[in-house]
Amino acid sequence: MIKNTRNRPSYILQLPRNRKLLLGKRTLIMGILNVTPDSFSDGGLFYDHEKALKHVKEMIDAGVDIIDVGGESTRPFSDPVPLDEELRRTIPVIEMIRSFSSDIPISIDTTKSEVAKRAIEVGADIVNDVSAFRFDDKMADVVADYGVPVALMHMQGTPKTMQENPTYRSLFAEVIAFLENRISYALEHGIDFSQIVVDPGIGFGKTAEHNLRLIKHIHLLHTLERPILLGASRKRFIGAVLNVEPKERETGTAVVNTVGIFNGVHIIRVHDVAYQVQAAKMADALLNESIQSM
């Protein structure tokens, strides 16, 4: 039986410049900004910095809570991007965002400590590390030194290898044990427990069935006592269920996110902010049995 999670735990993340991010009262929307030529859904669309900036403004108008800037595709079988190229893609965009919005929270989606460091210095507030500190042994020190929140994600293998033959003897036990280990690693490097977010890594070393099971029972991650980030937007398992291409997966994404919200997810990472803001607002109203302003 699925646990009733109407009492979604509340948490506070401390952002730079004495700002706070409240999680739990309503679902927060993390808007994806991939400044890459090869991401699976929107590769090339926002590779140009001016187009990226226009998209950011559209997301803000639609009600986004966090802008997640990424300069390296982590789609299945992808190769790493050189440091200089990832910096070239991401840092100017973060600077442009900050030039017209001093308050919108920005996360930097990277596994490289130097990218995270430079991004924070020009205005990023959160580090979103899909490797959970495994790809760069200096990343945890950067996060600790700057005191920013960090999202730690479960991944089996690397983006290059993760979908070759993902197998688990006990899916949830292994995902939770992995995240417990990475949380311990973070604490050992001076990161405050209250600044950690966990992500089950939908699509990262999982079959479609693994993804469906993780989302249906994602409340089990509450044993970690940290806020949960769900990044399922337009992913392949939705296409496998609905037999549609990535840009046609927003309805499937909304259903997945709603199930996640009803199971205690705090942040949903999405491509179409306007669509998913409405879906999350409706899900929150049903979850809380009340109407709240965004």
Give a verbal description of the structure.
The protein is of the alpha/beta class and 294 residues long. The protein has one domain (11-287): Alpha-Beta Barrel (TIM Barrel). It is 38% helix and 15% strand. The strands form two sheets. The protein has an eight-stranded parallel sheet. A two-stranded antiparallel ribbon has the order 1-2. Strand 4 (66-70), helix 2 and strand 5 form a beta-alpha-beta unit. Helix 2 runs parallel beside helix 3 (113-121) and helix 8 (250-262) runs parallel beside helix 9. The longest helix has 18 residues, at 83-100. The protein is globular and about 40 Å long. It starts with 10 loop residues before the first strand and ends in a 6-residue tail after the last helix.
Distance between the termini: 31 Å
Which homologous superfamily in CATH is the superfamily? Dihydropteroate synthase-like
Task: Please tally the helical runs, counting DSSP H or I stretches of 4 or more residues.
Answer: 9
Shape-level CATH architecture: Alpha-Beta Barrel
Secondary structure: elements and pairs:
Elements: E1 11-15, E2 19-23, E3 28-34, H1 49-62, E4 66-70, H2 83-100, E5 106-109, H3 113-121, E6 126-129, H4 139-146, E7 150-153, H5 171-188, E8 196-199, H6 208-216, E9 229-230, H7 236-242, H8 250-262, E10 267-270, H9 273-288
Parallel strand pairs: 3-4, 3-10, 4-5, 5-6, 6-7, 7-8, 9-10
Antiparallel strand pairs: 1-2
